[in-house]
Amino acid sequence: MNIYVIMKRTFDTEEKIQIENGIVNEDGAEFIINPYDEYAIEEAIKLKEKHGGEVTLVTVGDEDAEKQIRTGLAMGADKAVLIEDEDVENGDQYSTQELLAAYFKDKEVDIILGGNIAVDGGSGQVGPRLAEKLGFNHVTSIVKLEIEGSTAFIERDVEGDQEIIEVQLPLLVTAQQGLNEPRYPSLPGIMKAKKKPLETLDLDDLDLEEEDVEGKTKTVDRYLPPEKAAGRILEGELDSQVSELVSLLKNEAKVI
Amino acid sequence: MSKKILVVGEIRDGEFRHVSFEGIGAAKQLSGDGETVGVLLGKSVSALANKMIHFGADRVITVEHDNLSQYTPEGFTQALQAVVEQENPDGILLGHTSMGKDLAPKLASRIGSGLVSDVVSMEVSGDDVVFIRPIYSGKAFEKITVEEGLTFATIRPNNIPALEKDESRTGDVASLEVDVKDLQTIIKEVVKNTSSGIDLSEASVIVSGGRGMKGEENFKILDELAEVLNGAVGASRGACDAEYCDYALQIGQTGKVVTPDLYIAVGLSGAIQHVAGMSNSKIIVAINKDPEAEIFQIADYGIVGDLFDIVPKLTAEFKKVLA
């Protein structure tokens, strides 16, 4: 089976975010594999364990992503591709779609797995966009996956309800929490990962011009929400706290 | 300024999701002297079309087909693409719901368009619009402009106001024939976990429980509080993992993102996973026995104490005041 995972290096959103002049300050920040992509990597490795084949990780980013790619390889993926986006102007989800589609166009693919969203940008667009561009079926937000022959049996999370779906390969799916528990890389896995192939591609390698991948939208500013004034912790007898709270919600906050 | 904006309505269990009307409200801001056109896709939807007009759409286009009886990416993309080709709009809006998140990027890819996801507000001046959307799990925001092509966006429920409903508004409802075919995705079954009642993502009051609830049976006191406030009950991941309630109630980065007017957090610590799903609520009340709990950092009002004492008293007090 030819199994691919599209993964992204992201800022760890457990961290404090600092923004200066519209730019997120990344100094000293912790970077991780996007947590939803970790589910995708785990599921890809499980598919390989069951059906055989090869797992390839594909990332769009810069050379700093090698650390996260090596972690994915240490989990059990076989090889990886880094598509460099430094020449992409105003990169947006359209740009990423075009870069990935150019990479995949001559590949034999059974399934591509990705995360449901990335915790940094949070748009969740790239999976369905890429599937459409490749002419594949897609199923987003999956919590269960079984493949028999060329048919996938899937449970999809729909805002708390579950859809039971049957769909044909080739297929792109995006992982929701609950799909699996990602494994930790083993020590031998980490040693092996250092020698696994990592191919780096740029626009020229993909036969793309800068204008082919220019974004359709542009981020013009980023900012932190205004700092919230410290909340009021009520004091006194419990009964009077309760009546004070109700009165505040009614008369001060005016939400009831 | 004069633009034609399509708003794709969403119907669930025979009723509109309110975000459909919020989309019309947003389109009215964008369209200026132009036109706001409602779009309804489904097996049998034209009877509902007038409601989009009551909420401000100038006219409505319906596409009805047996293959649209439930949402599938291919079926709805085929139908919506046909509407887009007929209407040649300047913009398209959908709700940032399970359907919108799935359909909008597929259509954007097919028609080579940009797309701004999960918009919570807009700054419109003349022909220009700046979309504002949360990033980093709601810890920050970004402003986005459209550089080329369609103004295509999904909007987060409960953030952009709908217009007042006015049943005297009239407008044309036209159907478009589309041969929706070759569906590859077969939905065998839908397992409903969500109870009837108020949709969490659209509720104006949410009462939410965490691990401090200590058991499934104790969620009853949250139900009672929510009922008095005409609200919905939610939960943290911790409470769901502990099987106190169904995952359908989960609010957070995984689960639902909510923006109610009033969010009452009961016995939950305020982990980032959860806060990402509710931090933009207008007013947050925290009830927790641990004064150091992180939820107090983002709360507008807090009571430190035993939730099993506080919640029933609170329910009684609301009953009294709202009677």
Rounded to the nearest angstrom, the radius of gyration of chain A is: 22 Å
Strand order of the largest sheet of chain B: 7-11-6-1-4-5-12
Largest interface in this structure = A-B, 76 and 88 residues
Mind describing the biggest β-sheet of chain A? 9 strands, mixed
Query: Number of DSSP helices of chain A?
Result: 6
Indicate the CATH class of the largest domain in chain A: Alpha Beta
Note the gap between the termini of chain A: 57 Å
CATH topology of the largest domain in chain B, by name, is Rossmann fold
Sheet with the most strands of chain B?
7 strands, parallel
Query: What letter string, H or E per element, gives the SSE order of chain A?
Result: EEEEEHEHEHEHEEEEHEEEH
How much strand of chain B?
Answer: 25-35%
CATH superfamily of the largest domain in chain A: HUPs
Helix content of chain A: 25-40%
Number of helices of chain B: 9
Keywords (chain B): FAD, Flavoprotein
InterPro entries (chain B): DHS-like_NAD/FAD-binding_dom, ETF_a/b_N, ETF_a/FixB, ETF_alpha_N, ETF_asu_C, Rossmann-like_a/b/a_fold
Protein name (chain B): Electron transfer flavoprotein subunit alpha
Family (chain B): Belongs to the ETF alpha-subunit/FixB family.
Overview in brief:
The complex is a heterodimer of chains A (256) and B (323). Chain A has 256 residues and is α/β, with parallel strands linked by helices.
Description:
The complex is a heterodimer of chains A (256) and B (323). Chain A has two domains: 2-212, HUPs (Rossmann fold), CATH 3.40.50.620; 231-256, no CATH class. Chain A is 27% helix and 32% strand. Chain A has six helices and 15 strands. In chain A, the strands form three sheets. Chain A has a nine-stranded mixed sheet with strand order 11-10-9-12-8-1-6-7-13, with helices on both faces. A two-stranded antiparallel sheet of chain A has the order 2-5. A two-stranded antiparallel ribbon of chain A has the order 3-4. In chain A, helix 2 crosses helix 5 and helix 3 (93-104) crosses helix 4. The longest helix of chain A is centred in the N-terminal third of the chain and has 17 residues, at 35-51. Chain B has 323 residues and is an alpha/beta fold. Chain B has two domains: 4-175, 3-Layer(aba) Sandwich (Rossmann fold); 200-322, 3-Layer(aba) Sandwich (Rossmann fold), CATH 3.40.50.1220. In chain B, strands 7-11-6-1-4-5-12 form a seven-stranded parallel sheet, sandwiched between helices. In chain B, strand 9 (128-135) and strand 10 form a beta hairpin. In chain B, helix 3 (73-87) packs across helix 4 (98-110) and helix 5 packs parallel to helix 9. The longest helix of chain B has 16 residues, at 307-322. Chains A and B meet through helix 3, helix 4, strand 9, strand 11 and strand 14 of A and helix 3, helix 4, strand 7, strand 9 and strand 10 of B. Strand 14 (217-223) of chain A pairs antiparallel with strand 10 (140-146) of chain B, so a sheet runs across the interface. Chain A: Keywords: Electron transport, Transport. Chain A: The electron transfer flavoprotein serves as a specific electron acceptor for other dehydrogenases. It transfers the electrons to the main respiratory chain via ETF-ubiquinone oxidoreductase (ETF dehydrogenase). Chain A: Heterodimer of an alpha and a beta subunit. Chain A: Residues 21-210 form the Electron transfer flavoprotein alpha/beta-subunit N-terminal domain.
